[in-house]
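User:
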Amino acid sequence: MDIDEHPLALEARALVAEDGLAFLVSRDGDAHRVDFVGPAGAVVWPRFMHGPDPLLALLGAEQRYLAEERGRGTVRGHGYLDKARERVRRWEVSRG
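Assistant: Predicted structure:
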């Protein structure tokens, strides 16, 4: 499934859009990186998150954003990508 159509990516994009931000996902060597883009279209937080694929990078960025900017979503001992993987796993299980 294309990241632009994935329901979890759409949810994450809607969350940061509430604050006037958008994710910019791009290839960075053998990984994917996420930059935050502000309302004017300029990158405001470069290299906010890296991940092994576009969806995990984007969901990891969402988890970091929730923890650092909104003060929620943190689980002691779990990294942002670990939490993103678990979110994808639960979504896949819920779909049967």
